[in-house]
Structure formats: C-alpha cells, structure tokens
Amino acid sequence: MGGEKRSSRKASTHSSVRKKASPKLTGRIVLPGNAPYHGRRGCFNSFPKVIVYAQKKQDIVNAVRWARHHHVPVRYRRPGHPYDKRVPNYKGAMVIDISEMHRREMVNKGSRRILTQPIGPSPDRLIGQKRSILEGGLTDVPGILVGHAEDESGRTGCTVILCPSGAVPGVDVRGGFPGTIQTDAIRPGTATDVVQGVLLTGGSNFGLAAASGVMNWLAQNGIGAPTEAGPLPTVPGAVIFDLIYAKGARRPDAEMGYIASEEANSGPVEEGSVGAGAGATVGKIYGTPMKGGVGTASWKIPGGPVVAALAVVNAVGDIWDQDHIIAGALRPNGTFVNQTRAILEGIPPGTSGSRNTTIAVVATTGRLTKAEAGRVATLAHDGMARAISPVHIQSDGDTVFCLATGTDTSGLTGDSAVTAIGTTAAVVLEEAIIRGVKAANSIRPRHGGK
C-alpha cells in the first residue's frame, strides 16, 4: 500500500483550494483506551497505536490514508498468518487486520498493493458473465499514479494520472462536443510517442488550465522529454461540464493541477465524489439527475497483462448494471424515468442534455504501438456503451485515453494483444462506471444543479 514519495508543497497557497482533512477510520477499530485493546494487543509482540479490523476493502483504503496523514507506520496481518511468529515490530504502528473480511485480501508488501480475490467461485468466467466481480483500480498497473484535488466547496476538481516513466498513448473521442487538450499530438502519425500523464478535470474548458500545473510539477521533478531548456512533459487531457453543479466554486486551475500531481500515488484509488468527479451528475435528458463520480476497476489477464480503467462519470444517460438502472433521471416520486424508453416512446427530450460528458483512462502493462493503443481506446468505448444509455450524443464529449506501459513479459503483441487488451478494457471500464456512481456521496445534486 502507499506510493511514491510526495513533495512537501502545501495546498494553503490559495485559500479556495480545499485542504486535506484527517481521513476517518472505518471498520472495527480497537484503540489503546478501549476495553478489548489489551486482549487484542496480546496477539502482538508490542503496543500498536491502533488496530483496524477491516470489513471491506474501503476500510483498508481509509486506514492507509489515515496512516499517511498522521505519519504512522503500517503493518498488516493476513488470514492464516500468526501474530506471534515471524512478525515485524508493531510498536506505535497501525495494524490492519484483514482476517474478518468476506473477501480474501492479500497485501503484497513488495509492491504495496492490495490484491483482492472473492471467496467463492473463480472469476475465470468473467468475460461473458452479466455480473462483474472485478476489484482493484488503475494503480494496479505498475508505474501508474493517481491523484485528486478539489475546490474547497467540493463541487469541482481534477484527477491526474501520472506515468513518470512514460507510457505509449492512444485516444478515441466519441462525443460530439469534446473539450480536450493535446489529443491531436498523440494520434498516429505524430512525433509524440510517449506521454507522462493524463488530466481529467471539471470546469469545462476553463478546467484545461489545470494542465499547466501538472506539466510544471512534472518538469520540476525532472520528468519529460529532454530538451535544451529542460524536461518537456506531454499531458493530454479532457474535461467534463460541471459548471451548473459547481456554480460559485473555484474552477480547476494550474495550482489545482499541481496539487493533484503532488497527491498522485500508487495506492488504492479513492472513488466517488472526488477529483474530477466532485461535480459530476448523471441522467440529464428528463427528470432530475443524480450524482456521478469517479470509479475504477482492473483485471489481470491470466498469463498476460494487467488492464485497468478509471472513469469520471458525468453522463447524459442513465447508468445500467446488467439489465437495470442504478442511477439516472428521476421522476418526482423518486423512480427512474428510463430515458432510452422515453425517447423510443416519442417524449421530447429536455434541454439539460447539453451538460454532460464521461471521460476515462484505460491503462495496461501490455506492449502496444501508438496506433494499437488508439484501437484499445476505441474498443474500451464498448464498455461505456454497455453501462450508459443514451451515450455519445451530439452534446457529449465522451473520451477514452489509453496508456500502455509495456512492462508485460508474456509476449502478447500485435493483433492478439489489441483484441485481448481492448476486450478486457471494455469490461473494466464498464465496471469503473458502475462503481463511480455507487461510490458517489449524495443522491441528488446540491443547489438544484442539473
């Protein structure tokens, strides 16, 4: 767990950037002042600062964020591993105990990642199943870092995906009204074969200003193409329209992009109403929209590369999980409109369908050329179409980026790699979209936003 060492730059240089509050611990917490502490402490060879008995994966994420915030070392206890033998020193540390979880969580101390396996049927039948059982996130691809920053009101923000060692890029823009930066530079036939990051941001076109902050952070850390004037990073990006929901909020700018870059790390990715998803909403043709957000998922192809996705879900359409709507336009009585059916029945669309766009990044350890990465981005849109309906309309800016780190050693290349990675990318992107709305922190948008 954890990630790359961060800079000490503070968010306080601008009063309207939300400072990071102390994260809250969740799960079953045992503290030194609690009655069960000494009984539980007896399992250890010294006195831990806090013991977190995680009940679900988010409890682990929250615990790690708390430990980082308070500069407390983290120790793990996995099921089947005794406390009293061959264990590290727990004195003053946070102990994350995962023995009570309903899923088998394996903490890889070398890579500092949580590997999750469901207890029950094998996930080998994932492709073709109606119900996805994916876990993980974009940072399951080694070399990929993710960071969020938001306005202090929490109504807009940006999400930065960094690949300091570089990645082969691809992009496919399907929406009719995109807001992007440097997408032409990464299309096949251009000289840019490697990028150092991707920006996903709120603020509509105004939010593209955050890209300069990301590039400044990268350049200051020596990351980018070498030139006589110093490192020159390439950071393509895309925006969502959240200006109605985020009315009165500070728009993402260079400082916010810089802060998100400082926050970028290889640990578990925070989901929901964070970063670029802070002001995201879904279901905007008819009725009242619901809250959207950031979601992520990953999959390791057996014997092959890792494929992962991160989505900022700000869709005009409804969000579907299998054959039912889980978020979208609401009637006054709180039931779903089913916008696709309403269109088929000839109900005139409303005017708020112009305020949308879903943007995403798929990343893989696979070895791809720039043209192949672009094709993977194209195939990933299939997952967007499965999870969102309607999608890719004239006023959408739906965009998918692909980042290929090329560290896979399975030998999967060429057309076979594109087919395998692209098909898997569609599956993980579909799941990321579903998770993004499920993790959103409110049902209806604040301040009457559409």
From TrEMBL:
GO-annotated molecular function: aminopeptidase activity; flavin adenine dinucleotide binding; oxidoreductase activity
The keyword Ribosomal protein belongs to this UniProt entry's keyword annotation: no
Biased composition regions of type Basic residues, renumbered to the chain: 7-22
Signal peptide (residue range): none
Record field: transmembrane: none
Residue span of region Disordered: 1-29
InterPro entries: ArgJ-like_dom_sf, FAD-bd_PCMH-like_sf, FAD-bd_PCMH_sub1, Peptidase_S58_DmpA
Keywords: Oxidoreductase
Similarity comment: Belongs to the peptidase S58 family.
Protein name: P1 family peptidase
Native organism: Brevibacillus brevis (strain 47 / JCM 6285 / NBRC 100599)
Highest classification ranks of the organism: Bacteria, Bacillati, Bacillota, Bacilli, Bacillales
